[in-house]
Amino acid sequence: MQQRVLKLKAQQQIAPNTFELILSGDVAALAYQPGQFVMLQIPDTAHLLRRPFGIVTIEADRLHLIYRTVGVGTKLLSQCRSGQLLSVFGPLGNGFPTAFLKPKQEVLLIAGGIGMAPLLGLLKRLVAHGIVVTIIFGVKTKAALFYQLELESLAKVYYTTEDGTFGFHGNVNSLIEAKLTQAHYQAIYGCGPAGLLQMIARRYQNHPHVYCAVERPLACGIGECYACVVPARQQNGYYKACEDGPVFSKEQVVF
Ligand SMILES: Cc1cc2nc3c(=O)[nH]c(=O)nc-3n(C[C@H](O)[C@H](O)[C@H](O)COP(=O)(O)OP(=O)(O)OC[C@H]3O[C@@H](n4cnc5c(N)ncnc54)[C@H](O)[C@@H]3O)c2cc1C
Ligand code: FES
């Protein structure tokens, strides 16, 4: 866990309100597990709290993030230009557990919208280890999809759109019901809105390896303020998304 000042190398819009951000600097030695995140300082003195973003990849001197503009911080970030210096703190949190997987085993990745961002790094890591990956990428409408060619070069991909403009017309649950009830996966990984994660936990309730990354508004990002609590399933208590997560098994928490 380290703080670094990185230079904005490139930023481009890849879908409506969705941006790819490449930062460069002294990151080559940072070990990370897909699912971990960084806290990024928005370059504006009125917004002191750093914002969390899942690590897509760290390759050579490049940190790759993908984000959606939802509020003032991400809007300001989208206006940053090449050469802008940005302070980044991390990697933080845990990551997706993968040590139990063996080459040629099959896994399922389920992404809702921008939830694809942290799953991209996981996809690359799994494929590099010889794991066979199927992806379900669910969005509201075709325009919200991104990185299709890259995904399809690495995995079998099913798309769902709520308005039927691309792929399967409906939600992720109805796609699984229609096409994937017979499939068996060694592990299921998810990231996206709470409703999607709840559906994954319900549908795969008897599966031993179901892991999802939760999104909670964070403040400190390092376990000190309790802004990010997630209710525990087995006990009267809470986990902290920033420190104990953001990845949890379905047995640990109520998504
Ligand atoms: C571990 C983690 C990893 C994340 N990774 C990514 C990522 O890779 N790409 C990405 O686009 N986003 C990611 N997010 C969400 C991202 O951090 C927020 O969208 C961002 O902080 C919003 O900042 P803002 O200033 O634009 O919005 P604000 O002005 O702070 O808030 C705008 C609205 O968004 C809501 N909001 C803010 N933060 C969150 C949050 N974390 N979860 C749900 N609602 C929120 C607020 O309640 C408010 O309604 C991640 C969040 C976490 C906790
Ligand atoms: S954000 Fe402060 S404890 Fe998690």
TrEMBL record:
Keywords, ordered alphabetically: 2Fe-2S, Electron transport, FAD, Flavoprotein, Iron, Iron-sulfur, Metal-binding, Transport
Pfam families to which the protein is assigned, alphabetical: DHODB_Fe-S_bind, FAD_binding_6, NAD_binding_1
Q: Where in this chain does the record put each FAD-binding FR-type domain?
A: 1-98
**Which terms does the UniProt entry file under GO BP?**
pyrimidine nucleotide biosynthetic process
Q: Which GO terms describe its molecular function?
A: 2 iron, 2 sulfur cluster binding; flavin adenine dinucleotide binding; metal ion binding; oxidoreductase activity
Q: Which residues bind FAD?
A: 66-68, 73-74
Residue positions annotated to bind [2Fe-2S] cluster are 220, 225, 228, 242
Q: Which SUPFAM superfamilies match?
A: Ferredoxin reductase-like, C-terminal NADP-linked domain, Riboflavin synthase domain-like
Please report which protein family the annotation says this sequence is part of.
Belongs to the PyrK family.
Name of the protein in question: Dihydroorotate oxidase, electron transfer subunit
From the broadest rank down, the organism's phylogenetic lineage runs: Bacteria, Bacillati, Bacillota, Bacilli, Lactobacillales
